[in-house]
Amino acid sequence: MLNGLSAESNLVEQFQAAQAESRLVDMLVDLRRAAGLTQEAIAEKMGVTQSAVSKWESGKDEDLSVKIVGEYAKAADQRVALFFGKRVNHVEAVKCHAMEIKRHLSALASLAHKDNEIEASIQEFFGEAFFNILTILAKCQEQMPNGSEFEVRLQVVGTKPIRKLPKGPSARMVEA
Hints:
By secondary structure, the protein is mainly alpha-helical. It has six helices and two strands, in the order ααααααββ. It has helices at residues 11-34, 39-46, 50-58, 66-75, 90-111, 116-142; strands at residues 153-154, 163-164.
């Protein structure tokens, strides 16, 4: 992938492009392996040769396109998200993912209007999601250099308190 780096060209840009290509190539291999498929199986599903798949996965095909990546993901029955532009820092990535989670939760809330059974299931899931997000935040807080323990109590309206977030890495869930 570093082939073709010339002394006259902008070495940094070429190296960054090669790194990005490497991540893409690694992603292709990961997709295929996650699907439990061989290069030959992907090739058959895409209607190409195993040699073509091998070139894409080794980064030796300069004609690898977004269209091919999409077809590859479809053949592997996997989802792919490609991001273009400057790299996003961790804070911005978390904010972006939070907005995506909100979008999906709103879609579920809309479904809840259709049926009481669906509403009950979605309500239960919301409680689960809320608890899991708080647990994740608590565990990440504990990883901080001066990570302090904190306690969060969760009470579903109309019921007794049902959960207390665990303290420490080995704590268990307890009834409040």
